[in-house]
């Protein structure tokens, strides 16, 4: 809000000089007003930036939830029967012995490293994925 100062301004009206008030702003008040408006705009920009950030994060979370539902989150396999590895066994041998496909055997044993089997290690031979 600016402060107005009234000063005389003369104009000729019907042959007479008549004084009318003239309005003018003081310069220091104009600077204060500009600074205040600038501060208000900066505060508005901060709020808008925050709202955009919240909106973008919400979209990211929503997209990741939708993607996991679409792709189907991997479920934890459940094992019904286990056997211990014997000397000379490989993953392929165990899968053949229990008439399993290698893909199914690997899916019910996700944490087994077939190159590092050891005697006595438990492996799942029946279950659901």
Structure description:
- By secondary structure, the chain is an alpha+beta fold.
- It has three helices and four strands, in the order E-E-H-E-H-H-E.
- The protein has helices spanning 27-71, 91-97, 102-108; strands spanning 4-13, 16-25, 78-84, 122-128.
- Strands 1-2 form a two-stranded antiparallel sheet. The protein has a two-stranded antiparallel sheet with strand order 3-4.
- Strand 1 and strand 2 (16-25) form a beta hairpin.
- It is rod-shaped.
- 6% of the residues are buried.
- The model is unreliable at 1-7 (pLDDT under 50).
Distance between the termini: 71 Å
How do the strands line up in the largest sheet? 1-2
Based on Cα principal axes, name the global outline.
rod-shaped
Query: In total, how many beta strands?
Result: 4
What is the gyration radius calculated from CA atoms?
41 Å
**Element-by-element helix/strand order:** EEHEHHE
Mean model confidence by pLDDT = 76
Q: What composes the largest sheet?
A: 2 strands, antiparallel
Estimate percent helicity. 40-55%
The count of helical stretches stands at 3
- List low-confidence stretches: 1-7
Structural class: alpha+beta
Name the beta content range: 25-35%
């Amino acid at each position: 809000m600016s402060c107005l100062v009234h000063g005389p301004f003369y104009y000729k009206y019907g042959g007479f000089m008549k004084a009318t008030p003239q309005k003018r702003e003081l310069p220091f008040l104009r600077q204060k007003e500009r600074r205040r408006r600038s501060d208000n705009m900066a505060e508005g920009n901060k709020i808008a930036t925050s709202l955009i950030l919240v909106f973008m994060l919400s979209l990211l979370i929503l997209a990741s939830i939708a993607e996991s539902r679409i792709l189907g989150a991997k479920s934890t396999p459940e094992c019904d029967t286990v056997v211990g590895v014997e000397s000379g066994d490989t993953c392929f041998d165990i899968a053949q012995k229990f008439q399993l496909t290698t893909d199914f055997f690997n899916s019910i044993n996700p944490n087994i490293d077939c190159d590092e089997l050891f005697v006595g290690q438990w492996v799942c031979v029946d279950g659901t994925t």
